[in-house]
Amino acid sequence: MHAPALLRRSVAIALACLAAGAAQAETVTVFAAASLKNAMDEIGDRYEADTGNSAVVSLAGSSALARQIQAGAPADVFISANPGWMDALEGDGLIATDSRTDLLGNTIVLIAHDPDATPVEITPELPLAEMLGDDRLAMALVEAVPAGIYGKTALESLGLWDKVAPQVAQADNVRAALALVATGEAPLGIVYATDATAEPDVTVLGTFPEDSHPAITYPAARIADGNADAADDFLAYLQGAVAKAAFERQGFTVLER
Questions:
Q1: 57 and 180 co-located in one domain
Q2: Would you say 191 is a known binding-site residue?
Q3: In this structure, is residue 9 part of a structural domain?
Q4: Cα dihedral 58, 60, 245, 228 in deg (nearest 10)
Q5: Does residue 131 lie in a domain region?
Q6: DSSP-based three-state secondary structure for 239
Q7: 3-state DSSP helix/strand/coil % of the chain, to nearest 5
Q8: For the domain that residue 232 is a member of, what is the CATH number?
Q9: Per the annotation, does 109 bind a ligand?
Q10: Residue 157 assigned ligand-binding role
């Protein structure tokens, strides 16, 4: 075979291989709790580099995401910041039950905008109302968003809720509550420990006792009518070594299975 013909054939084969690879690449659409942003940014990049597939991640409060899925929004994987919203989707037959797994754990903390704020022990004796004065306590929506639900439950169990409830500034999701404190719009807030780790402009004053609220668990599952192959591949990746390291760097506890 002459050299020009051989070159043309080699180029054709290479292009065919590239086309085949592109045809096989998958895109997975992931609805994930807002508190997962930093970890999911890293994991999404590594997933694409490692597999050639891509992950499109939509971040919001778990309640908003679950309602979008109930309304028919196209998603392949849902990662909730609490079991309740996953239970709601399972009850509606919207997730593949056999794919559901408890992925991560977290804690909630009291944060301050003041970098010199003195750490406190969070007990029923904490003078939280006095610490606030006339200012606001930033929290995610306390009746819908998991971080807000956990925070309210913790304050109620410690006997602190009634005094501070009128001063709570509720945000659509936990990252929005974090931003209120980071920018100084609220002096104090309640967020996940992982959110505080991700934001240099807040100071952790204390961690809420584990027995003041239910265990914080992040379940993940495949959406029933989503792209099953892409979803299962991504869920497996989330449980692998690369994702585990990314989650742990952000302060999450990776749950044993």
A1: no
A2: no
A3: no
A4: -40
A5: yes
A6: coil
A7: 50, 20, 30
A8: 3.40.190.10
A9: no
A10: no
108-165 pLDDT tens trace: 999 999 999 999 999 999 999 999 999 999 999 999 999 999 999 999 999 999 999 9
The answer to whether 147 is a known ligand-binding residue is yes
189 shares a domain with 113: yes
Total domains in the fold of the chain = 2
- Write the CB contacts of 165 (distance below 8 Å, at least 6 apart in sequence): none
What domain range is 236 assigned to?
26-105+217-254
Token look-up 């004796």 returns 125
Residues 153 and 224 in one domain: no
**Tokens 């913790």 label which residue?**
154
How does DSSP classify residue 79?
E
Per-residue pLDDT tens for 180-193?
999 999 999 999 99
d(CA 108, CA 244): 20
What is the residue whose two structure tokens read 């849902």?
78
The amino acid at 103: L
20 inside domain? no
Look up residue 165 and give its DSSP letter.
G
State pLDDT tens for residues 154-172.
Answer: 999 999 999 999 999 999 9
* Cα–Cα distance measured from residue 211 to residue 23, given in angstroms and rounded to the nearest whole number: 51
User: Which CA distances in Å does 13 have to 17, 54, 161?
Assistant: 6, 25, 68
Residue 25: predicted pLDDT: 82
Enumerate the β-bridge partners of residue 168. Answer: 137
Among the listed residues 60, 78, 79, the one whose alpha carbon sits nearest the alpha carbon of residue 69: 78
Which H or E run includes 40?
A: helix 37-51
The candidate with the shortest Cα–Cα distance to 29, out of 51, 46, 44, is: 44
Cβ distance 140 to 176 under 8 Å? yes
54 assigned binding-site residue: no
